[in-house]
Design a protein that fits this description.
Structural class: alpha+beta
Helix content: 25-40%
Radius of gyration: 14 Å
Length: 146
């Protein structure tokens, strides 16, 4: 049976693991420019990393100072549709709850919206373009989970 571990920490504790997953998904697979992918928010965010058999396979971050903005959620292609993205989101939501936030929000790639709908998120407003990719704002109330 596979060993799965979800770790939530600051950037420095998991820097290499975070960069490995995000580079593979965003820079290589989606061809997003590095200057758009790595920003000045990373050091102030809390980062979730899912390790499968001690290898990083998924990550995401939550910007608590920005009111619980989730971002940079990524799962390596061979490991998608195995519940690992759900574990990233649960880890980030728990960070928000522990910080006293009542909701979380983010800009979802339109192609990922069905996944987020399955986790109880709602879309807010119209579609827009970010990093040359169609996105929509999504949010979820955490009040029922506090």
């Amino acid at each position: 049976m596979a060993h799965i571990e979800v770790t939530v920490s600051g950037l420095q504790q998991q820097h290499d693991a975070i960069r490995q997953v995000r580079s593979s998904v965003f820079l290589i697979e989606q061809a997003i420019a590095p200057e758009l992918e790595y920003d000045d928010r990373d050091p102030v965010c809390r980062h979730a990393v899912v390790y499968l058999d001690y290898q990083p396979v998924a990550t995401g971050r939550i910007d608590l100072p920005l009111g619980g903005k989730i971002g940079r959620v990524a799962v390596l292609k061979p490991f998608r549709r195995q519940g690992l993205g759900r574990q990233v989101m649960q880890g980030l939501e728990q960070e928000a709850i522990a910080s006293g936030l009542e909701r979380v929000w983010f800009h979802s790639q339109v192609s990922a919206m069905p996944f987020y709908f399955s986790l109880g998120y709602q879309s807010i407003g119209d579609e827009f373009i970010e990093a040359d990719i169609p996105h929509c704002k999504m949010e979820k109330s955490l009040r029922d989970e506090i």
